[in-house]
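tool_call: predict_structure(chain=1)
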Amino acid sequence: MAQVPPHSQYHWNHGSGRFFEGWYYRVTLPEINQSFAFMYAIDDPQGNTPFSGGSVQVLGIDDRHIWRTLPNTQDFRADRDRLWLEHWGLDSGYEASDRHNQGKINDPATGKSCSWDYEIESIETWGDRVRPSATMGWLSYLSVFEPGWQILLARGWASGSINWCGENYKFDRAPTYIEKNWGRSFPQQWFWLQCNAFLECEDLSITCAGGIREVLGNLTNVAMVGIHHDGEFYNFMPENSDIHCDISAWGEWRMQAINDLAQVQAIGTTADSGTKIMVPTATGLKFCCLDTAKGTIRLSLRTRSGKKLAIASSNNAALEVGGKFWHQDWSFRSAKL
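tool_result:
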């Protein structure tokens, strides 16, 4: 039986300093080229600070956005041994775990609403199927990186229903994904690509990310690519790979990585304008992130010698840029850690 992925548990240690933790769940419906992303966060859970409170956001049909704050931190609960959390307000809230996600959100200002209830079947978390690993390696246990980041479910199935503004969407074994982050600070700048809905390769999932990250007090440009394909895990990390990134202010994400075993090229594109999403900052949640769940991705995975492992594309990719400088083009070679 597969083990619980590292960092599944709630990380707050009851300190009085700045802290946030956030969770991201997504369900993709390839047959209609739509996705639903559910984003949960708790900020300064000790309460009584200018930034204390929780939030729930949903990115739904055609990248439309609904969000509500859940200001009472005393109503937030999370498990310190496994993935489970809940936070309910008067008309909005959620309960989520590695097996189930349910909630509702109502925005009286716009009249938009969403409710969801679906079961989750895990296929691949992070690493191999039997022994999940920490996304950022063993140093992630030592609070060296800010923030911490963990992919909890790279590929799985979701079965249930989502009601979006009165329209009900039922699904059985739809691609689903889960990740989380936590810590005292957020990157000054970052990008992210993720897709696990490839028509040519059902057993394929890719996650790419990069950012200006604080490591032991120093700021560095780092990036990574992780791929699950045909039961194998291909991990391109700063310590084992040469990684190049060319990220436009919005519209195009290009990554190339090579290590001793394999090489990958991933290109994400979108013609859509994107949707602003709230993310944690030093001064609380701010709209400083741009997302789409309707991006296109083209992926080429080969052995180091050039033998084809997977060539695939999808128009159900999630693409993101964020931070202080997300409106500028950004090219770099990942630093070694």
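agent: The chain has one domain: 20-333. Proceeding to next step.
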